[in-house]
Each structure stands twice: as structure tokens, then as C-alpha cells.
Write a structure and sequence with these properties.
One of its GO terms (cellular component) is axoneme. The protein is of the alpha+beta class. The protein has 7 helices and 10 strands. Helix 1 runs antiparallel to helix 2 and helix 3 crosses helix 5.
């Protein structure tokens, strides 16, 4: 959600039965604008909230001129004071995937090896030291994983310029009813993987200004249906 229109957007989202209190919405709307000024971001998005046992993490993302470039992520425990999160690494993601249960709401909380499969812990930590994973690292990895899986944009909402940067398409007015029903009309808003493996013949029908990301049409659902 855009910081400037956040209070109104959160009020609409609250109609679904889940949302922030009026006080939190007001404080968040003001603090994100200050965050944008202090860090000199071009745009600030409110990513969402991750509820823990003893508190919640409020996540924001700061963007520069290139909307597809890696974003700066910040979190707050009170919607006023913000801390910058480090970039996610493959090691963080691998460790976080082996953790179960709810967040505690304390970024300094440490998960011990007893909460990880012994074989996995031995493989991940070969130095022989007792493996400890801080909740802040788990938070970084979780936000990264969620962005990879469900960070989705409609086709045409963003365009790639001849110089390679990505920006909002000011002429985009939404998908037609027919296009909105197609999975190929939606893209993962992350670094493309499948697109790089396409042949030249497959790329011939693509528009480089709009089709520069991986579409959802070839996604394979994971997990089991009961």
C-alpha cells in the first residue's frame, strides 16, 4: 500500500474483518511519510504486519527510481520507530524454512538447535558450534519468501524502459474482464527465472516493455490437498 494513501486503504481493508486499530492507522500513516523523508526514498509501501506471541512486526519497503531493484525493508514494533532489515541470504532462507511455530515478537529472540532437525542442523552448522538463529533473521527470510511467492502484479502495470529501469505505467487502467481471468496476465514481481530459459522462438511473441517478468501460467502448486 502506498504511504500517502495508506489510511484510506487500510480502512477499506478493515472491512474484511482484519485490520489495524484507528490509532495504529493514524500513527502508521504519519510515520511512513517521515520514513520516506528521512531515508530519501522515492516511494514507501506498507508491506503488512506479522503477528507474534508478544507483539507484532510492521513491515515497510522503501523504493528508488527503479521499481524492480532490490527494495530496502524496515520493521517497527510500535509503528513509530523503524529499523532497517539486512538483505536476505540463501543461508537465512534455508534456516528459516526449518523453523516452525509462531514468531515471538522479539527480534533478539534466539531459536536453539532443539527446534531444528538434528541432521539439518549438523549440515547447516559444520563448525561444531551450537546453532542459534535470531528472530530478526527469520523475519528477513520470511518476508523474502512471501514476496517471492505472492508478490504479483498485473500485466502492463509496470513497464521497462530502454535503459533497463522499471517504472509505473501511467496509462494502465486495469485489465479487461477477459484478460483478468488469465494467469498469463499476472507476473511475479521478483527477479525472473523461467523467462531466462525461454527459447528465442518463445520470446518472439513477448513485448520486452511489459513481458520482462515470470508469468503465473506455468506455476505448479506445491503441497497436498486433503
Amino acid at each position: 500500500m502506498e504511504a500517502a494513501s495508506l489510511p484510506a486503504a487500510l480502512e477499506l481493508a478493515a472491512g474484511g474483518g482484519a485490520g489495524l486499530s484507528p490509532e495504529k492507522r493514524a500513527v502508521l500513516g504519519a510515520s511512513l511519510l517521515l520514513l520516506q523523508r528521512d531515508y530519501r526514498f522515492e516511494r514507501v509501501w506498507f508491506w503488512g504486519c506479522i503477528q507474534g506471541v508478544r507483539g507484532a512486526y510492521y513491515i515497510a519497503e522503501g523504493l528508488g527510481p527503479d521499481r524492480a531493484a532490490p527494495r530496502s525493508r524496515l520493521y517497527s514494533l510500535n509503528c513509530v520507530e523503524w529499523s532497517l532489515l539486512p538483505p536476505a541470504t540463501q543461508e537465512m532462507v534455508a534456516q528459516a524454512e526449518r523453523l516452525k511455530g509462531r514468531f515471538q515478537g522479539d527480534p533478539s529472540f534466539e531459536y536453539e538447535y532443539t527446534e531444528i532437525n538434528a541432521e539439518d542442523a549438523e549440515r547447516l552448522f559444520e563448525d561444531g558450534e551450537k546453532p542459534m538463529i535470531k528472530e530478526e533473521a527469520r523475519l528477513v527470510a520470511t518476508v523474502e519468501q512471501i514476496d517471492r511467492e505472492v508478490g504479483i502484479i498485473p500485466r502492463g502495470a509496470f513497464v521497462k524502459t530502454p535503459l533497463g529501469s522499471v517504472c509505473e505505467n501511467r496509462n494502465f487502467e486495469g485489465l479487461s474482464l477477459t484478460e483478468a481471468k488469465k494467469l498469463s496476465s499476472y507476473f511475479h514481481f521478483t527477479e525472473p527465472v523461467n523467462l531466462k530459459n525461454k527459447t528465442l522462438l518463445e520470446k518472439a511473441d513477448l513485448d520486452p516493455s511489459t513481458d520482462f517478468l515470470d508469468s503465473l501460467e506455468h506455476d505448479i502448486p506445491q503441497g497436498k490437498c486433503s
